[in-house]
Specification:
Pfam families: Glyco_transf_9. With 307 residues, the chain is of the alpha/beta class. 34% of the residues lie in helices and 17% in strands. The strands form two sheets. It has a six-stranded parallel beta sheet, with helices on both faces. The protein has a five-stranded parallel beta sheet with strand order 3-2-1-4-5, with helices on one face. The chain starts with a strand and ends with a helix. The relative contact order is 0.13.
């Protein structure tokens, strides 16, 4: 086996959940050199984990024609795709346009493996990691280790806690008042000088500064970690005593970085979407009702993870 390519779109959590599949290919295909194509912020994680020999951005303008029926294809990209012995694609291609253009580019039909484009929310199909890896069984690869890992270490003593009180979906969010109460309690459980780091991104831009100011006004030693570089954020998360977040890509990133993690769920099913690993606790609000998830229960889980 020579070269293998994994095509992966989607958001941060989707990419992290695919890391065990990429590792399975890197370790299971004899002498394979695995490359990963995806969105720029995420593909760096495959390199950080030591799973990809190279990465490419899927946003490249030369790729656009591969999603158009009968389009004139860029010769350089044709040569690139033709150079692989195995291509596994998680891209949505319901009408087979992308596959057809790959074959026109010279990729053999037996070398292309369209994987699932969307994980089933039905827990009877297994955890998302298992669903994503299952298509590789057709080429004799079976997943033994379902835990995504970036192979980071905390670099010594862990310090502080990190929380991510938002997400891109309002239905996935515990109340900000509950998060504030939790942050105050966590701060009181930390040794002097250690911080409560608050992770935030675009989804929290409208309210996070005011929320942080309120915490500081209550005397909490707060650090603000903005999601500008995923690799830098992963390195920071690897060193915390514990991380607490919603069902988001950030929680999956924290767990993959090795942070003791508490992931909070309400409408979504942790049997499908929880971060994987023995260092993870998943809490689900009863009946999917956030008001029935108490600060006391979340604090107890966080304390247990803090050790």
């Amino acid at each position: 086996m020579g070269k293998a390519l994994v095509l992966r779109g989607g958001a941060l959590g989707d990419f992290v959940l695919t890391l065990p599949t990429i590792r399975l290919m890197a370790e299971g295909l004899p002498k394979a050199e695995v490359e990963v194509m995806g969105y720029a912020p995420m593909i760096q994680l495959a390199e950080l984990a030591g799973l990809a020999v190279a990465t490419k951005r899927i946003e490249h303008v030369g790729l656009a024609s591969f999603f158009v029926p009968g389009a004139e294809l860029d010769p350089e990209w044709c040569a690139y795709f033709e150079s692989f012995d195995v291509i596994v694609s998680y891209l949505s291609d319901p009408h087979g346009i992308f596959k057809g253009n790959l074959i026109r580019a010279g990729v053999g039909e037996t070398d292309y493996f369209p994987a699932i484009a969307q994980v089933s929310a039905d827990a009877t199909h297994g955890h998302a990691v298992e669903q994503l890896a299952r298509p590789l069984e057709s080429i004799g690869l079976f997943l033994d280790d379902p835990v995504p890992s970036l192979n980071l270490s905390g670099g010594g003593m862990r310090s502080g806690v990190a929380i991510h009180p938002g997400s891109g979906s309002a239905s996935k969010n515990w109340s900000r008042a509950s998060w504030k109460e939790l942050a105050l309690e966590l701060a009181g459980n930390l040794p002097a000088g250690e911080e409560v780091a608050v992770v935030s991104g675009e989804a929290e831009e409208e309210w996070i500064d005011e929320w942080l100011a309120d915490l500081r006004g209550d005397g909490v030693n707060v650090a603000s970690w903005r999601m500008e570089s995923l690799t830098d954020l992963a390195a920071k998360l690897a060193g915390v005593r514990a991380f607490v977040g919603h069902d988001t890509g950030t929680s999956h990133l924290a767990a993959a970085a090795g942070a003791p993690t508490v992931a909070l769920f309400a409408p979504t099913d942790p049997a499908v979407w929880r971060p994987m690993g023995d260092h993870v606790t998943a809490l689900r609000a009863e009946d999917g009702d956030w008001s029935r998830l108490s600060v006391a229960d979340v604090l107890a889980a966080a304390r247990e993870r803090m050790g």
